[in-house]
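Example record used in the benchmark description.
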Amino acid sequence: MKKRFCMILLFALALLSFQGFLNISPVRRAEAAAPKLSKTKKTLYVGDSFKLKLKNATGTVKYKSTNKKIVTVAKDGTVTAVAPGKAKIKVTDNGITYKCKITVKKAKAAVKDPTGSSGPSGDIPAYLSITDEEVCDAIMALQSEYPEGMPWTNANTYTWGREVASGLGYSSFGGAGCQAFAMLASDAAFGNAPAYRFDDPAHIRPGDILRINSDTHSVVVLKVDGDKITIAEGNFNSSIHWGRVIDINNCDFVYGYTRRPVG
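Model output (structure tokens):
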């Protein structure tokens, strides 16, 4: 009986040891990243297009416009603005639907460059007739892609090509950190319109890039209310920051870049 009891005890201990061995290094599956739209809202002008993507999709992705008279979408996610108005692009993956809100605005009529510096005909890009409010909205729309606190340092760079840099007298013009984000944000409103330098703070308008802090920091203007200017900026404590208000009289303004011709 004693011998039998010992054998049962040894068997139980062996079983417990085996179970412990199995649990020494449990294998855990890495959780897959959740699907996410590249854009959840976008403002376009008639004729504009962009490619909408569903990141980390798990199945066959299907795109559908809620109003094809306003905006269309191709099988590959290319969205095209057709007429002014609002619509949504529905993106379906494995039975789950994601939505991107689209606002389409009327294409701007071409205007003339009062300085005549953009070419023999004096024509400049249509977006130069854009209103200050529309400029602010276009830049603010970047928040979904460049949210508050997103890391942004001098490792982040951006370059203007010949078409934009021509107003400054260059074949190209690049920047890093704060300057890069300001240039990127300005392009969100003005596309390829030429950039011009100005020195008079009285000319500051939304979309302009200001060089402040004794020529050490660049910001992009969102709103102007007298001497108070609401800005967005990159490399602010090594990150993106939206909505800071500065006083033009106390920010050590040096010069600025505008996408509107100056005399």
